[in-house]
Amino acid sequence: MWEVLVSDYLGTPVEAYDEEGKKVWERNLDIYGRVKTEEALGEKNLIPFRFQGQYEDEETGLYYNRFRYYSPEEGCYTQQDPIGLAGGNPTLYGYVYDTLCELDPFGLAILFETGTYGGLNSSVHVGDGLQAHELIRHKYLVQKKLTSQRVRLSGNPAIALDNVHHTRVGGAHWWETQIRKSQGLGRNQFHPNLKRELDITQGGLRKAGYPASQARKLRKEAEKFYKRQTKLKCLG
């Protein structure tokens, strides 16, 4: 019987302890979710949880991932993504691109998927447990008079983040605040220069664990979007 379950940085269970603090279970998975090593006192399959959001079905050996099943032997899902190509993976059966830093707790969308604020908040993403994070903050666009407080620009480039990488301590917003403080800015005080402001928001993403190459790509899209909006403002 276990009382305390210990997980790694992605939420994958790795150890369990009883009420006396004695280790009663330990397991290591490979990059596909297959069991590499497992030690348990008593029941063999003491902990049925695998990657975050997955629960092993002992009869089939597949992992239940809420909206579909995942095969650790194949390293992919057994059904197509219910949200189709909107899931960000053209194979329709693929799991995340990098299991060392990404997860898919609902079997719907990919953590760190890039798109637009409107696209990531569309109906096809309902239930994926992720939030759209804009590199150019909405309040910044309001201050630049490119939109109003009530109107979110759906075309604003964004990234899909879970709570851990988004709003909690160590997430993108938290790191942004730390960087702003180091530059003498308040929590919601933006730098008037776009380049410097993007340095802050991109830096926050990198500190929160977002891959550098994807951060650069997202920044380029954000810069293009900002230029289009300023041109539209001039034409208006």
Automatic annotation (TrEMBL):
Keywords: Hydrolase. It is an enzyme of class 3 (hydrolase). One of its GO terms (molecular function) is hydrolase activity. Gene3D superfamilies: RHS repeat-associated core (2.180.10.10). InterPro entries: Rhs_assc_core, T6SS_VgrG/RHS. Its EC number is 3.1.-.-. The keyword Manganese does not apply. This is Putative deoxyribonuclease RhsA. It comes from Roseburia intestinalis.
